Amino acid sequence: MSDNKATAREFFAAMNEEGPAVAAARFGADDLVWWTPGGGNVVDQLGGFQAFIDAYFEPPGIVLTIDGMTAEGDRVAVEARSSGDLKNGAKYRNRYHFLLEFRDGRITELREHNDTLHLSQTLGPLMAQAAAA
Questions:
Q1: pLDDT digits (tens, 9 = 90+) for 84-127
Q2: 77 has which bridge partners?
Q3: What is the pLDDT of residues 13-35, one digit of tens each?
Q4: For residues 65-74, b (16+ Cβ closer than 10 Å) or e, as one string?
Q5: Burial class (CB in 10 A: 0-12, 13-18, 19+), 36
Q6: Cα separation of 95 and 119, whole Å?
Q7: What is the pLDDT of residue 38?
Q8: CA geometry: angle at 109 spanning 51 and 3, to 5°?
Q9: What does the alpha-carbon distance between residue 14 and residue 88 come to, in Å, rounded to a whole number?
């Protein structure tokens, strides 16, 4: 049996270094579901999200730091925080809870919970601008 906590750490490292689409492809199962509040399953939108980060954030984009992890069976809970500086001078600092479910060492479901008010206030206007472009 694989070490799901180690895989989760590697997944978040890949997210920081190469973006969410690459991390999902490398560590996710073929039927991966990545759920977000208000967005539902966003697996097909991960490449667009990386393009949004590249367009609106200063390098290195959004960096996630793991604050704690708990694992039981095929589930790993991850508490994390993000840090990212936008090109417009705003700061994106969010808090997250991720629940990852594994099958045969691959992530089958990732449920991402975050501070949706902070996300809406900080990124909402930019997301509307990007959608209108």
A1: 999 999 999 999 999 999 999 999 999 999 999 999 999 989 98
A2: 70, 99
A3: 999 999 999 999 999 999 999 99
A4: eeeebebeeb
A5: middle
A6: 10
A7: 86
A8: 105
A9: 26
Place of tokens 């991966």: 32
Q: Does the reported pTM lie above 0.70? A: yes
Which amino acid is present at 41? N
Mapping DSSP onto H, E and C, the string for 6-66 reads HHHHHHHHHHHHHCHHHHHHHHEEEEEEEEECCCEECHHHHHHHHHHHHHHECCCCCEEEE
Sign of CA dihedral 25, 63, 125, 113: positive
Of 51, 30, 20, 1, residue with least CA distance to 108: 30
- Checking if the pLDDT of 1 tops 50, the result is no
Which amino acid appears at position 73 of this protein? G
Q: Are 85 and 62 in contact (CB under 8 A)?
A: no
Query: What span, in angstroms and rounded, lies between the C-alpha atoms of 76 and 112?
Result: 12
